């Protein structure tokens, strides 16, 4: 997943957030990053449970 960072607010992107006066975003034309981000959201939702201890989802990075 490719996440871009800029000091100005991005326009026409798939998803963005701000942190520490910087904007982090995923390009709207980057299908692979959009898919990876969506799958990550699905895995995080699946890890939520109301019974017993929560499931831990581990995602390797830089590997």
Task: Describe the overall structure.
The chain is an alpha+beta fold. The chain is 27% helix and 25% strand. It is built from one helix and three strands. It has one helix spanning 31-47, and strands at residues 4-6, 13-19, 22-27. Strands 1-3-2 form a three-stranded antiparallel sheet, with no helix packed on it. Strand 2 (13-19) and strand 3 form a beta hairpin. The longest helix is centred in the middle third of the chain and has 17 residues, at 31-47. It is elongated.
Summarize the structure.
By secondary structure, the chain is of the alpha+beta class. It is 27% helix and 25% strand. It has a 3-stranded antiparallel beta sheet, with no helix packed on it.
- The helical percent reads 25-40%
- Integer-rounded radius of gyration: 14 Å
Strand content: 25-35%
Shape: elongated
What's the order of the H and E elements? EEEH
Provide the low-confidence segments as ranges: none
Structural classification: alpha+beta
For the secondary structure, the number of strands is: 3
**What profile does the largest beta sheet have?**
3 strands, antiparallel
Given the structure, what is the number of helices? Answer: 1
On the 0-100 scale, what is the average pLDDT?
85
Terminus-to-terminus distance = 12 Å
Spatial ordering of strands, largest sheet: 1-3-2
């Amino acid at each position: 997943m490719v996440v871009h960072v800029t000091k100005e607010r991005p326009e026409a992107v798939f998803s963005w957030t701000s942190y520490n006066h910087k904007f982090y975003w995923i390009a709207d034309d980057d299908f692979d990053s959009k898919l990876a981000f969506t799958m990550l959201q699905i895995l995080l939702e699946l890890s939520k449970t109301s019974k017993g201890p929560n499931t831990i989802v581990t995602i390797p990075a830089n590997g």
